[in-house]
Amino acid sequence: MFNLVLFGPPGSGKGTQSGFIIDRYQLIHISTGDILRKEVGSETPLGLEAKKYMDQGMLVHDEVVIGMIGSKLDENQHVNGFIFDGFPRTVAQAEALDNLLDFKGNPINIVLSLQVGEESLKQRLLSRGEVSGRSDDNEEVIVKRIKEYHAKTAPVAEYYKTKEKLVDIKGEGSVEEVFTLLSAQIDAIIEA
Ligand code: B4P
User: Fold this and answer.
1) Pick the catalytic residue: 37, 72, 89, 124?
2) Which of 19, 40, 47, 84 has its CA 20 to 30 A from that of 67?
3) Would you tell me which CATH number, out of the four given (2.30.40.10, 3.40.50.300, 2.60.40.2250, 3.30.360.10), belongs to the domain 2-27+81-190?
């Protein structure tokens, strides 16, 4: 089994690259952002609660997100592996994920961290906002999301660095160039 975390700030291309990775490597895609947006769209109690935070550019509470991941892992028992997109976003989430995967005997193999400068992030999210209709893609919320990233999510990179699982990837080329860099890292592990 191959388990990958795709890590990076808001708008760094996690969702975009996940699409290519699942096609090539047949992994199960777990995007907490997608799951939460689905809950919001269906107006479930979880979605209504999550919306309050997402609309303001804040992270949803750890317990909610960790519970969602546990269910997704249980739903997919005999698979090639998982790509975690947008999760973990706090050190508490990273620890919970390690506990869940260690219990199953299939730890995280690698964490690929997309490096994109702040100006590019803002531009990308503003452009996405023009077409996506997402509530978190206007200037005020984007600035808040990036602040929240530095305060709560950036420490997750340190967490994986100490476990020698973190690899930085230049995330500012074309989508194809970034995918080439990501797949070289994945291939090196799969073929080892
Ligand atoms: P997410 O849905 O995870 O998404 P994201 O960080 O906004 O974007 P991503 O990095 O996937 O960028 P994308 O490919 O779209 O999070 C949304 C919200 O959900 C969070 O703020 C939070 O409230 C909540 N949430 C989710 N997970 C959570 C968790 N674990 N804990 C708590 N709360 C959680 O790319 C962005 C744009 O750039 C696109 O328009 C794309 O076309 C473009 N782009 C991509 N690659 C490019 C490239 N190489 N060059 C130029 N443009 C590129």
Assistant:
1) 89
2) 19
3) 3.40.50.300
